[in-house]
Amino acid sequence: MERYLSFHWHNNVSSDTATTPELVQLHEDSRTQNLEKEIQQLKERLGASEKRLALKEEDCQRLKSEKEKMESQFKKEIKAIENQLNDNRQSHNAEKRHLEKRFTKELTARDRKLTEVQERHNAEKQQMDKRFTRELTKRDQKLAEVQERLKQEEASKEEWKEKTKFYLASFENVRDSYNMCVKKQAAEEQELCNRFTLSLSKKDEELRVLREQLRDKTVRLAISFEKRLKQDQRRVENTDESNTPSDIEKNFSDFFDGERLDACDKIEFLLGLSREIEENVHYPRLACLIFETAYEQVKEARDAACDLFQNVTSQLIEEAPRMCQELCHARKFKESGASAQLPETFDLLTGRIDKGISTDNVRKIVWERWTNCMSEREESFLPRPSEDVLTQLGDYIKACIRLTWRMVTQVPPMQLEYGAVQFDKDLHKLARFQNRAEFCRGADHLTGQIIACYLWPALLEAGGRTIFLGEVMCEPESYDYVMIPDLRYPELDS
Q: Mitochondria-eating protein C-terminal domain spans which residues (predicted)?
């Protein structure tokens, strides 16, 4: 067995002669263990075969015992039959012979089967013995080869020991020279440190002077910025934006002279021939009422959007670290689609909210106010209610929504003024038809007069500066005004 283990270990050892003694010992142990495991497996297989053969022999013995039991049983039965059939022996002799023949045939068949099984087991046993003999022969050959290789590696081991001694001696010489170099290097480093410390102290002094100069310049720059911030910055705007205050101011003026007059013409066309009071007061007042209602609805939509953006912003603040980390990771590895598009998304969202404001809501509120005014003092300044008019003015309502949305989305938002009770020359101007008698007197004397109705609201900045004067009609207090009679009450003309 030891020869077999040595042979197997030599067969698996590497042919590389440049191995250390420790590796050789490790290879010896591992391969010896492998050979022992293989031999143990072969023994287990041989034991299993012997067990199977023993089981087969036990089966043969069991069959023989069963045969003997059956023979004894048959004999007992024959004797019992003979005792019982003494009187009828002649009649049953033929049957007895028949039974004996049948039992003899069965016993012969069983003997034949047992013989075949025994022969087959013997043949298998001989084959297994031959195979194990061949395997053991091969293992012995491999073991001899491994032993030969071990002898060669032992010779190589001695050679490596000599080389190791030489390398150790060389290493000691190199170590001594290295220690000398380290001491020399330490002395040079100490000298450099002294020189660097002296230079650093000079630079610290220069840095202190520069910091004092920077502090003085920072104070002067802060004072300059404070003066600049105190100046009027309301007219400063970003010319790259598409919705600048100057654009809104121009569009508001164009809207007053364009879409508003077109709406008045359409009202006149829908309601039929008009009198002077309807053309100058009723139709402009209805157009102004629609514009005021659109402004109020847009302000509510803007406040709702601000609340929405506040919630979105709070969520973004919570998610910002994770989103920034993912974006940085994507940019670092140059992943496609990694870009910060949040500002463009908000601009796009705020620019489309005005399209979501329903014209039906504006039309419904205008209709309610229009009908309610018929029972109030302002009834004389609006035409007769007509739902068809509001239906036909759908484009005008949409235009009012778009313009007022651009106004309220400014930072800070622009405002409409249409709630004053008294005339203010800095906010209002008289209606054109009522201003004819005021050319010679000026508008200063109108300050404080009661406003009858607004024909168009005033446009203001957030700071209160008037961008566009509102057009109003004042209540007449003297005969200098051009009086517009109310044709619904003819008795007042007399």
A: 246-473
